[in-house]
Specification:
single chain; mainly beta; Immunoglobulin-like; 5-stranded mixed sheet; 8 helices; globular
C-alpha cells in the first residue's frame, strides 16, 4: 500500500500515555487485513459452443498489483455449479493469462468463471470474482433471451448513517433487482401526515442511484415514493428522526476531501471525537478534536493516497471509541489518474484481409502491454465492466452494480458515483469486530509458486529420517538427481516450484544389502499443497433466462458470425490435414506401414489417418505421464479437454473422439494407466466410415520391443506433476484467397489478442494483425502498468 499517513489535531494536542481501544483496532487492521482482488479480462463478452475463451487476469492488493500471490485458480462452471474446466495460472507481478476451449456440445446457457488466489480463501468468498458469460449453441434445445422481469426494490441511505432533527441530510436512493433495472425512475419525499404535498422530488442519475436532500423535524415520519419509467412504484420509509447525534457532510474535489461535523445535543459536544480515514484497510488519516465545540471541519489533501484515485472510508468515533458515523467517498472523481498509450504510428486499412499495424513508443516507461483488437461494428456499446471499475469499485463491493464501468467513463457523473458510495458499506472489515480485538483466521498463507509433499515408501514402510534420491525430469529435459532427507514423519517437501511442462518425480533408495535396490518395493505419493477449493456460494443473478428453443431458432448477427468463424477454422484444419496426407502419397513401403497392416483390421484401415510408430521409431515419450498427455499437439485437429477427474479426453475437430484399445472401445482412465512401454502404435482416424473420429491404441504383440527410452517398472516409484497451465498462442490469421479450400467470408470478431506484448531492446512494441472481410474501424484496448504501478488504460476506436 503506497500511502502517506496524515495526522491532524483539530485543536490542542493531548499527550498519549498508552494505546486506546481505537488505536489497538487500527494496529490490528494494519497487521492482519491484507486482502486481494481479481479483474478478469476476456476477449469477448459472449461466446458460441466450440469457441476459445482467451483471458487475462490482474490480481491487486489494494490499488497496486499484488506481490502476495503467484498462483491463481480460474474455473469455468455451468449454471448448475458443475465444474466444466479449470486452469492453474502463474502470476508474474500480479498478472497471468490463459484460455478455455469450449466443447461444441455445450448446452446454451449462462456460464460462470470464478477466479481467486489461495490466499483469498482466508476471507469471504463474496470477494472472489465470478464473471457471467453467456454461451450460445444453435443446436441446443433451450435458448437464452433477455429477461423482461421488472421486479426491483429500493432503499434509502442517509449520508454518514445519521438522520438528526434540524440537520440538512443528503440521502442516496438505491435500486436492486435480480434482472435488469428500469432505464429511469423518479421519486418524491412526503410527510405521511401531509402526503399530497411533496417536500422535494428527484430523478435518477442512472439505473442504480439517485439522491436528494431533506431537513427533518423531530416527531415527523417521512416516506419516499419511487416510480419507474414503466409505471411501477414502491414506497419506502425513511429512518426515524433522532434528537441527537453527529451529522457528517463530505465533498470531494481535486484538492482533496472536505468533511464537516455538526453535533446535536451531545453532552460533551464533539470533544474527544476522532476522525479516522482508511484506504484499502490501511490507515491514511487520523484527526482528534480536543476542545468543546459543536462544529468541526477540515480538508484531507489528496497526498494521503499519493495523489491517486481510490475509495476513502471516513469513520467517526466518540470519546469512548464508539463508532457513530461513517461514509465512503471517492478521491478525485473528476481527475482520474490514467495514462494513455503513446501511439507513434499506425497502418490501418479497410481492405479485406489486409495487414495492419499499430506502433507503440519504445521510449515509454510502460514496457509490458495487454492488447485486444476487435472489429468495431459502430454500436459503441458501453462496457459493463472494465479494469477501472473493478480496481476502484466492484473488486471491493459485493452488492450488484449495473454497468459499473459508467462511473469512470469520459461522461461519468461524479454525483452518481458519490450517491452510490453513500449507499455502500466497506465490508472487508468491521469496526466493531476490530474494536473487540477479534482477528481474521489465516488458514492459508501466501505461498510462492507451487509446493508438494512427498511420501516415499520402501516395502510398505515409511522412510523416516532417511536419505533418498529423487530423479526430477521436466518435459524433454535431461533428468536431474537430487538427494533429500525425509523428516521425522517420513515426508519430503518440494517448495516454490514454477513449471508448465510435466515434471516426472522418481524415487530411488540405496539397498541395505548386496542385492540390487531394484528388487525393493518402492512407492511414492505426492500431495499438492497449493490446491483449488470448492465453490460454496451462489452465482450472481443475471439478466438472462432460458426458454424452450423455437423450431427455426434464430441467432443474432454476432452469434452467426462466430459460428461462421468456427466453420472457417475447421476448413483451415482440413487443409492442413490434406497437405500432410498428400505428402504421404508415392512413398515406398516402410516399417510403419507393415506395422499398421500387422495390427489393424479392415474397419480401422483408413487413408485419412495419422500413425505414430513406437516399435520402429523413438517417439521421445519418456517424459510423458501417459499416452494421452503425449499426444497433445502432435496431430492436426486433435485436441484434449480434461474431465472432472483430471484425465485428458480426445477431441477431433471439436467433436469428442472414440477411444479404442486394440480395437476394443475403452475409457480414457484405462488408457492413462497403460505404460507407454507397452504401446506399439497409435492411430488418429478422422471421419472414416463406421469408425468416424477415433484414437486407436495398439499394444505390443509377440517379440515386439519399443525403441522408446521408457523404463519398464513393476514399482510405483514415480509420479507426474502437472504444474501451471501453459497459455495457448493466439493465431495471427492470414487467409489466402488462393488456398485449396477458400475461406469465402472471414467473420472473426477478435482480430488480435496479446496478453504479454513486450517492449524489448531489440523489438519495439508493435501490434500486428490481419483484417477480416468487413471491418472498417477497430476497437483497440491497451492496458499496462509501469514499475510504480501507475495504470495505463486506453480504449480507442481507430480507422
Amino acid at each position: 500500500m503506497k500511502n502517506i499517513f496524515f495526522l491532524l489535531l483539530l485543536s490542542i494536542a493531548q499527550p498519549v500515555l498508552s494505546q486506546t481501544k481505537l488505536e489497538k483496532a487500527i494496529t490490528n487492521l494494519e497487521n492482519n487485513y491484507e486482502q486481494e482482488k481479481v479483474y478478469l479480462l476476456t476477449d469477448k463478452s459472449q461466446y458460441v459452443a466450440g469457441d476459445k475463451i482467451w483471458f487475462k487476469s490482474f490480481v491487486f492488493d489494494g490499488y497496486n498489483r499484488s506481490a502476495l500471490s503467484t498462483t491463481l485458480f480460474v474455473e469455468l462452471y455451468n449454471s448448475d455449479k458443475k465444474l466444466i474446466d479449470w486452469k492453474t495460472i502463474l502470476l508474474t507481478n500480479g498478472e497471468g493469462s490463459g484460455d478455455f476451449k469450449l466443447k461444441e456440445d455445450l448446452p446454451e446457457q449462462v456460464y460462470f468463471v470464478r477466479a481467486y488466489t489461495p490466499y483469498m480463501n482466508n476471507f469471504s468468498e463474496d470477494f472472489q470474482i465470478v464473471k457471467t458469460i453467456p454461451i450460445y449453441n444453435p443446436n441446443s434445445t433451450e435458448a437464452l433471451e433477455i429477461s423482461k422481469n421488472s421486479d426491483w426494490s429500493a432503499k434509502a441511505f442517509p449520508e454518514g448513517g445519521t438522520f438528526i432533527n434540524g440537520m440538512p441530510t443528503k440521502f442516496a436512493v438505491r435500486l436492486s433487482g435480480d434482472a435488469s433495472l428500469p432505464e429511469s425512475w423518479t421519486g418524491k419525499i412526503i410527510d405521511i401526515q401531509n402526503p399530497n404535498v411533496p417536500i422535494t422530488t428527484f430523478t435518477s442519475f442512472d439505473k442504480n442511484v439517485a439522491s436528494f436532500k431533506i431537513t427533518p423535524v423531530l416527531g415527523k415520519k417521512y416516506q419516499v415514493i419511487i416510480q419507474d419509467n414503466t409505471g411501477k412504484s414502491q414506497t419506502i420509509d425513511l429512518p426515524q428522526v433522532a434528537g441527537s447525534g453527529v451529522n457528517l457532510e463530505v465533498s470531494s474535489s481535486k484538492e482533496g476531501i472536505k468533511y464537516s461535523l455538526k453535533g446535536v445535543n451531545l453532552t460533551q459536544q464533539l470533544q474527544n471525537y476522532k476522525i479516522v480515514g482508511t484506504i484499502n484497510n490501511h490507515l491514511a488519516y487520523k484527526a482528534n478534536i480536543t476542545q468543546l465545540t459543536n462544529e468541526a471541519s477540515s480538508l484531507i489533501p489528496t497526498k494521503i493516497n499519493n495523489g491517486n484515485n481510490g475509495v476513502l472510508q471516513l469513520a467517526i468515533f466518540d470519546g469512548q471509541d464508539n463508532l457513530v458515523a461513517q461514509r465512503l467517498c471517492f478521491i478525485k472523481p473528476n481527475n482520474l489518474k490514467i495514462e494513455k498509450a503513446e501511439i507513434i504510428g499506425q497502418n490501418l486499412k479497410q481492405t479485406p484481409r489486409s495487414f495492419n499495424s499499430i506502433d507503440l513508443s519504445p521510449e515509454s516507461v510502460f514496457k509490458n502491454y495487454t492488447v485486444l483488437v476487435s472489429e468495431d461494428d459502430g454500436s459503441h456499446n458501453q462496457d459493463e465492466e472494465n479494469i477501472l471499475s473493478s480496481l476502484w469499485l466492484t473488486g471491493d463491493f459485493t452488492t450488484k452494480i449495473d454497468t459499473p464501468a459508467q462511473y469512470f467513463s469520459k461522461t461519468a457523473n461524479s454525483e452518481a458515483l458519490d450517491a452510490l458510495l453513500i449507499s455502500e458499506n466497506w465490508k472487508r472489515f468491521d469496526w466493531n469486530s476490530l474494536l473487540s480485538r477479534s482477528l481474521p483466521v489465516i488458514k492459508t498463507n501466501s505461498q510462492k509458486f507451487l509446493s508438494y509433499r512427498i511420501k516415499p515408501l520402501k516395502n510398505n514402510a515409511l522412510l523416516k529420517d532417511t536419505n533418498v534420491n529423487l530423479v526430477l525430469k521436466l518435459g524433454e529435459n535431461e533428468p536431474v538427481i537430487n538427494q533429500f532427507k525425509t523428516d521425522q514423519n517420513g515426508y519430503i517437501y518440494l517448495d516454490n516450484l514454477s513449471f508448465n511442462e510435466p515434471l516426472d518425480v522418481s524415487l530411488f533408495v540405496n539397498s541395505e544389502s548386496n542385492k540390487e535396490s531394484g528388487t525393493d518395493n518402492l512407492f511414492v505419493t505426492i500431495e499438492p499443497l497449493v490446491t483449488p477449493t470448492q465453490f460454496k456460494g451462489s452465482f450472481p443473478s443475471t439478466k438472462y433466462k432460458l426458454v424452450k428453443a423455437a423450431e427455426n431458432k434464430k441467432v443474432s448477427p454476432a452469434i452467426s458470425r462466430a459460428i461462421n468463424t468456427q466453420k472457417n477454422i475447421k476448413k483451415t484444419e482440413n487443409i492442413d490435414v490434406q497437405i500432410e496426407e498428400v505428402k504421404l502419397v508415392g512413398k515406398k513401403k516402410d516399417p510403419k506401414e507393415d506395422l499398421d497392416k500387422q495390427l489393424s483390421t479392415g474397419m480401422f484401415s483408413s487413408i485419412n489417418s495419422t500413425i505414430f510408430d513406437f516399435v520402429n521409431e523413438d517417439q521421445q515419450a519418456a517424459g510423458s505421464n501417459n499416452i494421452l498427455d503425449w499426444l497433445q499437439g502432435r496431430a492436426a485437429g486433435l485436441t484434449f479437454q480434461r474431465d472432472n477427474s483430471g484425465v485428458n479426453v480426445p477431441y477431433i475437430r471439436g467433436q469428442k473422439a472414440k477411444l479404442y484399445l486394440d480395437e476394443v472401445p475403452t475409457d480414457p482412465s484405462i488408457i492413462t494407466s497403460l505404460p507407454i512401454s507397452n504401446i506399439a502404435m497409435v492411430k488418429i482416424i478422422k471421419e472414416s466410415g463406421l469408425i468416424g473420429n477415433a484414437v486407436a491404441i495398439y499394444t505390443m504383440k509377440g517379440n515386439m520391443k519399443s525403441k522408446n527410452n521408457v523404463k519398464e517398472t513393476q514399482n510405483n516409484n514415480s509420479s507426474i506433476l502437472k504444474g501451471y497451465d501453459k497459455p495457448s498462442e493466439f493465431p495471427i490469421e492470414m487467409l489466402d484467397d488462393d488456398s485449396p479450400a477458400k475461406i469465402e467470408n472471414d467473420t472473426r470478431e477478435t482480430l488480435y489478442w496479446n496478453p504479454n506484448l513486450f517492449d524489448s531492446d531489440y523489438v519495439p512494441p508493435m501490434i500486428k494483425f490481419y483484417n477480416n472481410d468487413s471491418a472498417k474501424q477497430y476497437k483497440v484496448l491497451i492496458i499496462s502498468f509501469d514499475e510504480d504501478d501507475n495504470l495505463l488504460y486506453d480504449k480507442e476506436i481507430l480507422k
